[in-house]
Design goal:
Elements (H helix, E strand, L loop, with lengths): L3 E2 L14 H7 L6 E5 L6 H18 L2 E6 L6 H9 L4 E3 L9 E6 L16 E6 L12 E4 L6 H11 L6 H15 L8 H10 L5 H8 L5 H13 L1 E3 L2 E6 L7 H9 L7 E8 L2 E8 L6 H9 L4 E4 L3 E7 L5 H18 L7 E3 L16
Parallel strand pairs: 1-7, 2-3, 2-5, 3-4, 5-6, 6-7, 9-10
Antiparallel strand pairs: 8-9, 8-14, 10-11, 11-13, 12-13
Helix pairs in contact: 2-4, 2-5, 3-7, 4-5, 5-6, 10-11
């Protein structure tokens, strides 16, 4: 399969190039199956993108499509999305790729350390909207559009180009994927993302959307928030918290989504110990914050990170889990955060002063 590009034709060319969706479909050639993969702990944007592209491929080529998950799906809303939309997901660690498979990676890029599958030999295409480049050498088809707020917007463009119908299940998945990527403030979206939302909304199942948005939260969610508040410190306009243990990797993102709403915060950073790795999540209320680049510099030489202007995530393998080893890692991490986020001279103070619980207050007992 020859390498193709999703770049539009230049003005003045004698013959217009095929549309990106045409090249995407044509380049699969004689592949018998199309396997969709994404990043570890997949999110709604990756789920929606995989489902939307699978719908496109099945409609236009009749090829068999397989959707996968890398890692666990624990966040309540994400789990509800999988269950309510009946997504048939195959775990990448149990999937045996065949020589004639075409692997399509969405919402991520190979070589970023965010996958269990690495860079499969059968990798045919990468479709993404992140600004952190991966190892794209030798990938036949690449379409990366950092100007978009979500990969789901890119997938919808392909469906529209091919005049493919939008069943409620597909529209709901794409719309919720878009919602989760555009929900922060300031919004990381464009006019194209807003147009995608307007296009999808009439076709989506509003009842399923409401059930996904308001998924029931496990007890661990509230324990995590309590620990995050107890451990949170303020460095001028940055809030940092350390969670050990972190029951689920996705909870780090839930914590910073909550903390960044503090009226004095421009940054919220959570570092959580999940098994043998340190999970990092960043949110910012600033425009042009370069969160992905900053966190990448924090993790340089320790692990991997990337993301967007105002949202980023990372992972650092824990090589020394002893108490002294963890203290050393935490101290180095905080020092790097001070430097990269401009807080070298900030005084550290607790976010909240939580008094010890008192058994004398028997409010509920009479």
């Amino acid at each position: 399969m020859a390498r193709t590009s999703a770049e539009p034709a230049k003005l003045g060319s004698l013959q217009s190039k095929p549309r990106p969706s045409d090249r995407f479909l044509h380049g699969m050639g004689s592949a018998s199956r199309v396997v969709f993969v994404s990043h570890v702990q997949p999110d709604p944007d990756s789920f929606g993108s995989m489902l939307g592209l699978a719908h496109l491929v099945e409609t236009r080529t009749r090829k068999k499509c397989i959707l996968t998950q890398d890692g666990e799906v624990n966040r309540a809303e994400n789990r509800a999305m999988v269950d309510l939309l009946k997504l048939d997901l195959h775990h990448v660690t149990n999937l045996k790729l065949q020589p004639n498979d075409a692997v399509v990676m969405v919402d991520s890029q190979p070589g970023t350390g965010r996958h269990s599958c690495g860079k499969p030999a059968q990798l045919y295409a990468v479709l993404d909207h992140h600004v952190t480049p991966g190892d794209l050498a030798g990938v036949p088809y690449v379409d990366i559009r950092p100007e978009l707020g979500a990969t789901c917007s890119l997938v919808l463009k392909y469906l529209i180009e091919q005049n493919v119908s939008l069943p409620p299940r597909v529209a709901t998945a794409l719309l919720y994927g878009l919602e989760t990527e555009l929900s922060g403030y300031p919004r990381e979206g464009s006019a194209a993302d807003d147009e995608a939302v307007a296009t999808l909304y009439p076709h989506a199942d509003k009842d399923l959307l409401a059930r996904i948005r308001n998924a029931r939260l496990p007890h661990s969610h509230f324990e995590c928030l309590a620990l995050a508040l107890q451990n949170a410190v303020v460095l001028d306009k940055l809030i940092f918290t350390w969670l050990d243990p972190l029951a689920q990797p996705e909870q780090a993102a839930e914590v910073v989504d909550f903390l960044v709403r503090h009226d004095g915060a421009e940054w919220a950073i959570c570092a959580g110990v999940n098994k043998d790795k340190l999970v990092l999540s960043v949110r910012s209320s600033r425009a042009h914050a370069n969160a992905g680049e900053r966190l990448s510099r924090v993790c340089a030489g320790l692990g991997n990170a990337g993301g967007h202007e105002r949202r980023a995530g990372g992972c650092i393998p824990i090589t020394d889990p002893s108490a002294s080893g963890m203290m050393k890692l935490r101290a180095e991490l905080i020092e790097r955060i001070r430097v990269q986020f401009g807080q070298t001279d900030a005084i550290c103070r607790p976010l909240v002063n939580i008094p010890p619980s008192s058994t004398d207050l028997q409010i509920a007992s009479r």
